[in-house]
Amino acid sequence: MGNIIKKNIKELLLSSVDVFVSSDDQSITLGNKWLETVSNNLEKCILIIVLCSQESIKKPWINFECGAGWSRKIPIIPICHSNITVANLPIPLNLLQGFDIQKQGKLTELIFRIAKEINIDTSKKVDELSILQEIKEFEKNYQINSKIKNELKEIEEFTPSLNRFTQSLFDDIKQNLKNLQKNQVLEFQYKSNGGISLTNEATEIKGTLHLNFKDFFNIYKQYLTSNLTTSLL
Known about the structure:
Elements: H1 2-12, H2 34-44, E1 48-52, H3 60-72, E2 76-80, E3 99-100, H4 106-117, H5 128-158, H6 164-175, E4 185-191, E5 196-197, E6 205-212, H7 213-226
Parallel strand pairs: 1-2, 2-3
Antiparallel strand pairs: 4-5, 4-6
């Protein structure tokens, strides 16, 4: 989401403003100290945009970045997406004037607010329809990934006796979550006994797990080869 916002701000303001995205590899180059780079940008920025979802508002870095902006008395704008709205923001984010990303006219308002902060005129029309379509596609993938993370967490909670291979498998899956939106997704069922099966023959299904087939297949094939008597992980 940050990269979508960044790209459109730079295009609409003709690259008159530098946009730092703390989660973007291009904003923090290889070899740089992550915290130091973020801190330096917080010290010199003139406006902070906070991208809020049910997951991100629980992360400590949000309070860290907002606190830095609050102490410097610079504008902080929460933008809600995917699975949260402004009405559901917790304190202190709900004390700030933010908006829901899909609300018509708000992206245009954001661009003009930034232009005002850097004291430039912008006459370029904001094609909100195209931007919102791109954001809608992102939100779709984001919510799939969030669902996967929650289901993986639930599997781990219901499976205290995970062996080393299975735990390693879950760790690998988590590391590859970003690739899910680019590749084919495979559906599994996880069962009350803590196993994962390619079929739904279990007597009690706890839920459905969607995994990246490309990243998962070789691990699963290796497991089946060494455990021919069972189809459970």
